[in-house]
Amino acid sequence: xxxxxxxxxxxxxxxxxxxxxxxxxxxxxxxxxxxxxxxxxxxxxxxxxxxxxxxxxxxxxxxxxxxxxxxxxxxxxxxxxxxxxxxxxxxxxxxxxxxxxxxxxxxxxxxxxxxxxxxxxxxxxxxxxxxxxxxxxxxxxxxxxxxxxxxxxxxxxxxxxxxxxxxxxxxxxxxxxxxxxxxxxxxxxxxxxxxxxxxxxxxxxxxxxxxxxxxxxxxxxxxxxxxxxxxxxxxxxxxxxxxxxxxxxxxxxxxxxxxxxxxxxxxxxxxxxxxxxxxxxxxxxxxxxxxxxxxxxxxxxxxxxxxxxxxxxxxxxxxxxxxxxxxxxxxxxxxxxxxxxxxxxxxxx
Length: 349
Prior knowledge:
Strand content: 15-25%
Largest sheet: 4 strands, mixed
Structural class: alpha/beta
Shape: globular
Low-confidence stretches: 1-9, 24-49, 345-349
Mean pLDDT: 85
Number of strands: 13
């Protein structure tokens, strides 16, 4: 299948930082190739090119996966699974990948995303008995607005709690306990993994409310975005599937994954297999530009976040249906898959 070209919206400041980094690399390359005056250029056979020790070492380096939280053009936090060199202090290294810098900006831009932590921020990290204490340098106070502050706080909490050794996170700035960042974001508490990309609601939230987390495709089809929605039902698979079928809010910037005319006929679970029975209009997902792949992946991830769920089976009007994807994805967004599967076009606002 040939994918359509996709426009990726990023903030002008972030784009300028990426372009400056590219320009620096280009100037350096031109300065190197320009040496030697009028010396005639020639192409050296590939087999004759020496392999540097660094390049050879990179091939054999032991790699491991980690999860980085970036921000997209609509302000959503997006989890991305990346491979980095295996090392001591992997949690601290993961936080370092979320700081704005020439290298990190370029890596994120390949995915249509931007790092969320202000440039120059460094971290000291102490983890003991499930509690992580993050000491951030004063550069964190340079966030441009409250949205960035709230996103960087949430991104740090979610990135650290990806590790089994971390249950909650506390913050310091330059070794001191402070209540709020520059634009008023509270960092005085102990933070756990709740409320990722919460949907705004005009209604008051009462004590018996629950949060259901779902995944929806971004409108450009590149990424799956986690969304937390307040409901007054049990936070279980049936509720999650029903809310998933309703789709994202109209002004969300996210794609409605299933045809609006689709009806939910039933949800059941047996032996780790969730069976979902939809009406016949469910089959219209095949009309999506990707054949319904991202819609099905989003549905599977919405279901498998519940303990014990290992497989999702689809019925249409009670009959087995062969979906475009059968294997449950290991993670919502893999950096290597996203970078090679979709062409990129940066649109500077």
